[in-house]
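Re: the pair you flagged

First of the two:
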Amino acid sequence: MESSVNNPLIIRCKNCGGQQHFDIAKQHYICEHCGSTNELDSQKAEFKNWRKIQQQKVREGISQVRTFACPACGAHTLAASDDASAICPFCQNTMIDAEFAGNDLPEIIIPFKITKEEAENKLKAWLAENKGNKAAKVIEDNLNRFTGCYLPYHIVRGAFNGDMAIGLQDGTTTHYPFRAYLSHTAVNASQDWDNLFLDGIEPFDFSETREFDFAFLNHQNAKIQNVVGDALNARVEEETRAELYQSLAKKARTKEMDVLLDDNENESIPALMPVYLVKCENGVAAAVNGQTGKVSIATGKQKNLTRNWWLWPTLATLVVALVSGLWMGEALSGGVIALVFGLVFFAVAHNRHHKEIVQEIITMPEEENRHNDTQTEFFADFGKGPVPTELKFFTPSRIIKLIVGMLVVTLLPLLIAIPIQILRGLPLSDIKIGYGAAWYITPVFMAIVLAGGAAKTMMYGEPLYFEKQPNGTLKRRKLPSQQKFSLKQIFPGLKKAGSSKAKVKLPPGCAIFIILFLLIGSVAAMLS
């Protein structure tokens, strides 16, 4: 990626002047050209010193601009004194002079790269392709209000330590340590615009970041941030957690988690970003990235991001019902087996889905990701200190083991009856499979407990660990205190999952007696 010598976000190598990147495993910066390193604390001290000098420059230059306030929408903007516009860039009403409120002044800026005409053509292209969309008609009727303005952001950068926390069915929580590094996460510092809507025009190309100078406002207004203090800190933390959540969810292939962060000293830098905007009624709005031309549309509607998680377990259950019904020749026995496995299928699917309803945002092009440089890595200690590790929960092999285990338990009377029938010298076709219905009901209760959370406890409570090797391969490992996952753990899982809600306590050995009674009775019935 192209960089500039005056880009304050680029970390330069003191040895050769090349760009350094963060090594998340070793927790330091390393030069991509000569291999020289720069410690994290050293870099933070250098950047802190640059910020102190830059803040002083910006404060001294505040006299070069005027502050305006819009009595209609409440927006406050900065504009160069020689060509200050008295027209609000957001609602087109006349603005009045105002006093600067003393909010964080920008320290860095990404300049406009495309003209208003080019940005408007980008938006018109989207409107032409979406003529049937109601939001498109509303935006088209308000194109005369389309304007450009620098919007206030805070750029978050730094190393993070934290835990991915997953709550289990028995009330306990498992914690998986991770490290992360954000090179430049943009956090909207204006309460007048929805975060998700502005996220749609990202990513910005941070290689074109410059030290802020009021000369950039000669032909563009800049909105003054109105999210400050605790509200700003909360938004920065929320956006940081959201970005880490997305990265960790993709890496661990689960959304059943919380992101817990340690006390991390990270940088939050006031910045200005180039955006063309038009705001309409009923939540409809359009934004165009003033650097890349990417379009984001707020339709004013809500969108459910929850996938149809129930579809594949329903189809799988129907297949099991059909196969088992044809094999056993009885609808009842086939239905019971389908119920057992259906509950397992639904338990797995339900524990992996995540309900999420958000404002409907349309972006163009959709294949461009907002965050493509966030680093997250799990770490585990196998006896010689934390090392980069990959975690796996609902793997195909584990799901197959669970299904095979349920199948063995369900067909246990048949598996016992077959060798007995062979020893008796009688044909296997004489076994009355349907007569085992009394036993087939037993695994249903086991499946209900699995669906109630035992499966989640087993999978999330004891993940598979894979240590990342220097050559990029993965080596299966286990923690010193970790037991190897096996089908035998289904039964302690059932006991733990069922004990919290049990109201009737059976005498010792009674449960075993009932199970043996059903098993022996079913085998005898099949062989009669």
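Second of the two:
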Amino acid sequence: MPFVRFAPFFAAGMLTVYFGGGASGAVFFAAGAAALIYFIVKKKKAALCAAGAVCGVLLMTVYTFAYCNPILAYAGKTIDAQIFVRDITERSGQSEEIIAKVNLDGRTAKLRLSCADALPEDYTADVTIELEKADGDNYAQNLSVGILLTGEITEVRGAEYVGADAYSFFRTLRRNFCGKLSENVFGDSRELAKAMLFGDSGNLSPEYKEYLRVSGAAHYTAVSGAHFAVLGAALLAFIPQNRRKTRFVVSLLFSPVGILFYGVSPSVLRASVMFFLYALGMLFHRKAHPLNSLCIAITVIPIFSPFTIVDAGFAMSVLGVFGVGVVGPAVSEKLCEFIPDKAKNVLSPIVTAFTCSVCAVICTSPISVALFKSVSLSGALTSLLLAPLMAVAMTFMLLLGAVQIQLFAVPIDWSMKIAAFVVRLFGKCRVMSLSLDFNGAWILAAALALIVTVCAFGDLKTFSLFGKIAGAFAVIIPVISVIIVMNRHEVRFVGNTYSSAAIVFDKNTAAVFVSGGGDGLSERISRVLREHGVVKVTELAAYNADYGGALAVKELSEMLPVGKIYTNELAEGLLTDLNTETVPESGIFTASGVTIASAANFDDPPAVDILLYGGNMNKVTESPAKTAVYFSKKESPLPDNFCNARIDCDFKVAIR
């Protein structure tokens, strides 16, 4: 299959230019060009591989120099422009964050903008914008929607409605469906349904968000190819199998409509291309091969959106489909050879389903480990259990939205109740979240994925040999993780503009000291705890906690077991059902022999081991502490004992 040879090297060429720069791209291009000439002369099929490498380098180079660099040249400038408001991503009072389209030097660009005034969707406005390069903390998120620059709107000189387009129509339709769901399904079932069916997890409790991450089911709450595929399958379920042309027309129309309904994300685009190829196969009585369809998607999509190739969501989507649709079936077919003939009819479907789910987790694990520093050991099982529940809920969601009969909400409610039980059951078992934060962890994960792929494409002898190697890797990786976690004695830091926290690790437990109010820190703290294998917080000190900080403490206690909580009278009154104790705000916290304090609590800061300064301190002064920590976007010269933990995100202090 031509695309199977072309696509991997095409992607490799693009990635080489993006991550390696012009020099690496030139070397890769020269090698690819030489190989292309050689294989053409020798009339080898490998010429397609070399052609893919050459085309990938050329496309990313042209895109970088002709589009990206001119856009990035606007970073640090203040411009007057007319914007078109495409989406509102966050709103707080009158201030909001929007995604807008703007013309920069004849090039259409997307910007992520903050604005003090309310600007509705589908409006144009004349504004003044202070532009900056996309924030490194959210660069992967920005890149996924093609954003190179962020900015702040400092002046709005007028706005007007320009009319809804097809995208706006389907966005409104999606909101109407979501509204019907909210009217007829209640409690945790409603919020989980909105998250799993529409990717709307804004009102999902922090507790359930953590459960989803620990259980390995978080991908169900972000719009992805899975949503697209399940929605498409639900639509086709209403059309008889013998109505081949009708099914083809519906599938053909659904490819672009599904994109408009769920939004243009790389994973949805991938699913759309594959769904379209499936429809063509249906028309011509041919089955679209998953690997060939996947490689066509890898080739076609980056031509129109080159940055898709470096998007983490796209990579996860591609590798997930490769695992569940290519590697999984091949491995399960070989495994079924070892099942006794009498039991094959019963066990083969179970083995196939579970093997495909496991292979999807293994194939996506290099990206998961690189980005999230952990992988869920229960991810394969939870994904397998949640998939049919999501399909049932999606089918009845279509009926509920279309005919608005409340009875159709009952199956949605019950399927989401079962889903919530599954998520909660596995989410509370934190030992199933394997910490893989050590150097080279993603390489081990990639090696395991490669070995499993060899098992899939090899003969039974190769399968037997590499299967044993894969089994050894599956034991070695958790053993390394456990050894590192049980020997962990260090302090790490998280923070935001308002407050910060020091996390003292002692094996698989931790103590947490919060400096400042603590509002908004619960998810940041829980992520660091999860990435480093913590199953319990023994002590939590939040001496200055305000209302938001008390809420954050409560949220954290719902995510994982928390022992003693030290706080003030205000927070204690809001945390009556927890094990709290009131202490003076000027207290010094001690954990694992390390003394920690907040500089804000002292006119003359003490000489403790670690002193936490304000959440976003601009001026750096001398400090008597052994290590002084603050958070700021701005880089500035620091004394020897200071650290800007926002810039140096992986900063840690070892405990001797």
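The CA atoms of residues 620 and 638 lie 7 Å apart.

-B.
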